[in-house]
Amino acid sequence: MDTVTTTVTKETSNQAPQFVIKYASSAVELWYGFISFIETIPGGQIIINYIKASHKNDPWRTLLELLLALLAIRYFLASKYSQDESEKVKLSKREVDELIDDWEPEPIVPAVRQEERWLFDAIPAIEGAITKHVNVVEPKSKEIIYDVLNMAGRDFLDMNTNELVKSSAIKTITECGVGACGPANFYGTQDVHVRASEDLARFLGAEKGIVYGQDFCTATSVLPCFLKRGDIAIVDDGVSLSLQKAVMISRCSIEWFHHNDMDHLESILESLQEELQDGPLNRRFIVTEGLFENFGDSPDLARLVEIKNKYKFRLALDESYSIGTLGPNGRGLPEAYGIPRTEIEMTIGTLANSFGSSGGFCVGCDAMIYHQILSSNAYVFSAYIPPYCASATSAVINLLEASEKPGEINPLVKPLQENIALMSSLFRNSSKLADLVSVRSSDASAVMHIRINPALRKSLDLPEGYGGPGSQIVKAVKNGHETDYFDREYNTECYILQLIIDQLLNSKVLLTRSKRILHHEVLPCVPELIIYLNSGFTKSEIQSSFIAIEDAIYQNLSTLTYKSFDQISDSLEFS
What we know:
Aminotransferase_I/II_large
């Protein structure tokens, strides 16, 4: 160090004043002291070697790096909300109060349009238990209409009134309470949950089953477990909203094939073969429904299985509406086609329809179920299905299995299928309704989808469907324009269907209609009257309710013209 100081002194003695030489020598001493300190730190020698090499090549670079390092240290240590006190505006209490009084926050959601206010007067309330006959509180007058035939409930097998099912649920409530008290993977699982999973797997002919707390969230929890970025899903473009959202949030590649069009499905798969062979090995699913929630029809399962085996895809089948209704024993579409459940890699569905309970389920092979236990969001993070719902599900399955007779239709399922056939034949043979409505659902569906006849809709200048790709709704959603989510024609068509429902309520028949939010739907939709059939309905109730339905439809649609449709729209706007 002394040598360095002497050298600096000699070099600068003839060029600078003595005080400059003194400070230069002190700076050099400090610098070498800093270097010595750095060398004592673990890894310090590496830093010293880098600085020496950098300084040798370009001393200005070393200086710049040092300044940048100091700037970075100051940035990360400085307060993020620092503000010069002199720049702060100090307000008096009176000024603060005036600003608060003048502040008008933006609404969280747009205000309800005048044209949509009729929706608030169209929501009936049920007084008492929800069974095949209910007491309805009329929305406008608030008067109670007693003993109304409930064709708006999904208890297809009339299990809500079964004494064995009710006693099983009551027993579980007495022993376990009404809640699972937590997610399944923590402390929410009880013995009744395990039994329900085993009963579902056995009844449907699968290796293993799993149950969920919410039926709508079942698909959105199961499919994202297996579909990730880079995977591919070929999806029927008529699937329910739950399945639409499930494949979207998985972030996989999605291809939509025309509703129940197996030829189009196969053409898509054929066109993907070169890409799939050259690309990485990924997971590939075909996603469809056993009985479509939006249409009430079924795919050709035999052809579907043949296609998925040919192209080595897995099949995910939502049987929310087909279990309990299709097949001799209500085991769904595979039983109706005579196809073993093992051909369907993933079966999901709801417990709230034919099983007279709540929640959802999935059945399949052991590995697929175990993977969900570890990876499914709803199974890991959401509260488990209430124990009494699980025991009710098991009770329904035990009843169905105990009633089976080889070569015969299950006596618990047969009344439902007979009621479906009877109501379908009444609509099909009605000359009064032939030009007014069309039944979109199949003759095997417990849910009848009644639409305004396509020819009549065309005469009213209505579109084939509302929403979907390229529509104004999709453009509004993309641009964030919430006020443009409204569709005038869709609102009016729904209102006309509601007039039919209101008239039928006075005839002691409760119907419902499709209730979809256009900006939530990925695919186009058409408003429908919905009739839910029940095995508990008598033949006379089916026939008398049809007469009331026929009259209500005729009175509201037979005089409907383009001009009157437009007048109804105007009346909703200015009412």
